[in-house]
Amino acid sequence: MSRRLPAFTLTAIVTFLLVQSLSAQTAAPTNPVIQTNSPLATSNPVTAATPVIPTTNAAPPMGMQKPQDVPGKPGERSSYSSVHVDGPYIAMTFDDGPHGTLTPKLLDILKERHIHVTFFVLGQCVKEHPEILQREIAEGHEIGNHTWDHLPLTKVVSKEGGLTHEIADTSALIKQVSGKSPVILRPPYGATNPRLSRAIENEYGMKVILWSVDPDDWKDPGATVVESRILNGWKESGGAKPGAIILSHDIHKGTVEAMPATLDALLAKGYKFVTVSELIALEKAQPDKAPTATPTAKP
Ligand SMILES: [Zn+2]
Question: What is the C-alpha separation between 266 and 272, in angstroms, rounded?
């Protein structure tokens, strides 16, 4: 008995050490690391490469843990690149204006067709052309915040007071000029992450709007190319489909020139144009694993 005891003890020790070493090995890969993958990552390198922890006064509440951009209840998500809808609804969006001559031209084109769109405006441009913003509002379009200086918010967030200037000052000017505070924001370059998007919603009361169709019109590929890319898609960007949010810019001549034919083609396919907030209001609950809904009213 006295001889077996040490053997048993030895076995116990060896087993203990083995278990310890095994659990140390398995634990290693799952050690907490800063999660930098963003489910919102677009092809934009700014988004993909930027881990962001807000550090300004506008930082999100500390209790907020690992915000996920999982589909929420209809109308309750923090960010959108498209919306699940049951009808042929799409939202055209125009960024970076207002522009002194091109935006009024675009407004004429939209007015002729009774189409309402969403303008994501820059604070510095609104300051320069407040009367154009007033016309956008008067003609039934929605105004969204696109920051003051068009800097990536994922960088701005680490600058003291940076978000306040880029976001709050722009919203304040829009309110002052139009009488209405914007409820949506598009981050320049689409540079955001779930935590930042949640902070923008919680601290500034705006949902973050990205896009599902990107014609790269800012590279001025020409009107017919812009039109074709919006209608048919290109690269990883799909073309117009129900619930799509289409990105474009009203500060480029080629984009505005592309609009009459593009809008007419979309109208001919049966699409109905709504503002981004209207599109979000139309969001339907997404059934689990159901095939993508095809609207009964085509397109
Ligand atoms: Zn922009």
Answer: 8
